[in-house]
Design brief:
The complex is a heterodimer of chains A (about 325) and B (about 280). Chain A has about 325 residues and is mostly helical. In chain A, about 70% of the residues lie in helices and about 5% in strands. Classes of the chains: A mainly alpha (about 325), B mainly alpha (about 280). Chain A: This is Sugar ABC transporter permease.
Chain lengths: ~325, ~280
């Protein structure tokens, strides 16, 4: 084998013209060297173009047309979008999505930060704790929604049962915005806190010990060390989790859907309908594809804006100093 | 002082452990009991003996509308096919991006990263139209083919290959006359195996748990397991033990994966975090 292929440097720029005889073998070799990288990455780009990129562009096109079950009703320009801007149900869904996002993300990331800080200490049974906080992530969203839906039941749920013990009257969790948001947000919090804690923990473990020793010499206590050393140094992990939570939060769908027994309008007064649910309702229940596509693009733009804003905010996070 | 600080740490950790695990335990308890216990105060905290009966009901005529067995089989097929494909194509592309030189490499890598930001879910309306054109509504391939590659996977494997495959190894194999694909099969894939395992775990879990798209493109008679669950939750929402038994069965494959590979999962998440 090695006798046939002349030893040549692995990473050369194309061979100088006329240097080697254009035998079949060396042409094959050249293709193998310069062509195979493209062959290797092609499946990804081809499939993504078909099922990821094309739908997104096509959504933009459909969103400019009046397209429903009866077929394509022609170009309407920004008609769907201006209708959307004046649609109170849409703005209600935006409000719900943002409210749920705040309730689901802020406690989640704060709890994750605390748990990570605790797991970063020399403690016993470390792996057990790590595995335990990660257990929720293997549960499916549908499973979480079903179990929590029961726990939040008005008459038979354990949450009301426990609240009853301390004298609180039974709450109809689905009835109001506040209570339904809390219930749905708790599902998201439960599922993702441990995952984020592990990401923070990994970042914390990469911080050199001597930084803490120096801070200690300067008289910084545990809390001060956490604010001035830990938080600034895990900022990349913070930005990552904030952006991921934003993307997930803007697309929240399954939890509120199953919390309301599969009702895509999110309660009798749409009190917990998210934008993703509204898109689904318009597209697959009212079969208004044009309008649904306009909602989809608006969600996409909202996600990008929220992601960038949140990334900028968390990038600016500094510990107490400076 | 030091001692008291430590007990506070353990107390907080144990509380978070209980909060993490309790809903799963409750799922198990209800699935092994009958509907009478719902709403009992204090709630029953030990499993009962009704699991067999509940499972029979789940697969019997009582829960016909959920097509649960069909859902399990469909999800199994979909999750395995998607996992195999994603791991293979991601390793291949990740290796190319990390270790091979070619024109446009950086621009193409940035394109991959940019696609990670695109929420594919938001394209479900036109994706649905594509499926209608292909005649794939209510067909299992509709929940498989669009997910055969993953930008996240390519990125993950690229990061992994960068570290795990030494350049000297590649050069040595080249000198021995290995073709690039031979190189991938014989030298690179063994080194990528731990990273590929983590990617496979994530992909399997994500596909098994996928909900929105199956709901859009499949019908109730040919569901995935999560779709079946939502049918249970919608059609039999007063029958808690039935819902919980279904949920338990749908979660068992993931729990098995978690018990077997939990360690790798932990280190996979932590590794990825350090690199990103």
């Amino acid at each position: 084998m090695s006798a046939e292929a002349p030893p040549r440097p692995v990473r050369t720029s194309p061979a100088p013209a006329g240097a080697s005889p254009a035998s079949r073998l060396s042409r094959w070799n050249r293709f193998d060297l310069h062509g195979s990288p493209y062959v290797f990455i092609a499946p990804f780009f081809v499939l993504f173009a078909m099922f990821g990129f094309f739908p997104l562009v096509y959504t933009a096109w459909v969103s400019l047309r009046a397209w429903d079950l009866t077929g394509d009703g022609g170009f309407v320009g920004l008609g769907n979008y201006s209708r959307l801007m004046g649609d109170p149900d849409f703005w209600n869904a935006v409000l719900n999505t943002l409210g749920l996002f705040v309730l689901a993300t802020v406690p989640q990331l704060l709890m994750a930060l605390v748990i990570a800080a605790l797991l970063n200490r020399p403690i016993r049974a470390l792996l057990m704790f790590r595995l335990a906080v990660l257990a929720p992530i293997v549960t499916s969203v549908a499973a979480v929604a079903i179990v929590f839906g029961q726990l939040y039941g008005r008459d038979t749920g354990m949450v009301n049962g426990v609240l009853g013990l301390i004298g609180v009257d039974a709450i109809d969790w689905q009835a109001s915005k506040t209570s339904s948001w809390i219930a749905v947000a708790s599902m998201v919090n439960w599922r993702w806190t441990g995952y984020n804690a592990l990401i923070y923990l990994a970042a914390m473990q990469a911080i050199p010990r001597d930084l803490y020793e120096a801070a200690q010499l300067d008289g910084a206590g545990a809390v001060r060390q956490f604010r001035s050393v830990t938080v600034p140094l895990i900022r990349p992990a913070l930005v990552f989790t904030v952006v991921m939570s934003t993307i997930g939060g803007m697309q929240l769908f399954t939890e509120p859907l199953l919390f309301g027994q599969g009702d895509v309008s999110g309660g009798s007064l749409r009190q917990f309908q998210t934008v993703a649910m509204y898109m689904f309702e318009q597209s697959f229940q009212n079969f208004d594809y044009g309008y649904g596509s306009a909602i989809a693009w608006t969600i996409f733009v909202l996600t990008v804006i929220a992601g960038v804003v949140n990334a900028l905010i968390s990038r600016r996070l500094r510990g107490g100093t400076r | 002082m030091r001692h008291r600080g430590n007990s506070l740490v353990y107390f907080t950790l144990v509380v978070s452990l209980v909060l993490s695990v309790f809903p799963l335990y409750w799922l198990f308890v209800v699935a092994t009991r009958s509907n009478d216990v719902i709403g009992e105060m204090p709630p029953p905290l030990v499993p009962g003996g009704n699991l067999g009966e509940n499972i029979r009901r789940l697969f019997g005529p009582d829960a016909e509308a959920a097509h649960f067995a069909r859902g399990l089989v469909n999800s199994g097929i979909a999750a395995v096919s998607v996992t195999v494909s994603v791991v293979f194509f991601s390793s291949l592309a990740g290796f190319a991006f990390a270790k091979l030189r070619f024109r446009g490499r950086n621009a193409l890598l940035i394109a991959v990263l940019a696609t990670m930001m695109v929420p594919v879910q938001m394209g479900i309306v036109p994706l649905y139209m594509v499926m209608v054109k292909l005649g794939w509504q209510n067909q299992l391939q509709a929940v498989i083919v669009p997910f055969l590659v993953s930008a996240f996977g390519v990125f993950l494997m690229r990061q992994y290959a960068e570290r795990a495959v030494p350049d000297e190894l590649i050069e040595a194999a080249r000198l021995d006359g290995c073709t690039t694909f031979g190189l991938f099969v014989r030298v690179v894939s063994p080194a990528l195996r731990p990273g590929a395992a983590v990617l496979g775990l994530f992909t399997f879990m994500a596909t098994w748990n996928e909900f929105l798209w199956p709901l859009a493109v499949l019908e109730a008679d040919n569901p995935t397991v999560q779709f079946s669950l939502s049918q249970l939750a919608t059609q039999y929402y007063t029958d808690y033990t039935l819902m919980f038994t279904g949920t338990l069965i749908a979660t068992v494959p993931l729990l098995v994966v978690f018990v077997l590979f939990g360690r790798q999962l932990v280190s996979g998440i932590m590794d990825g975090a350090v690199r990103s």
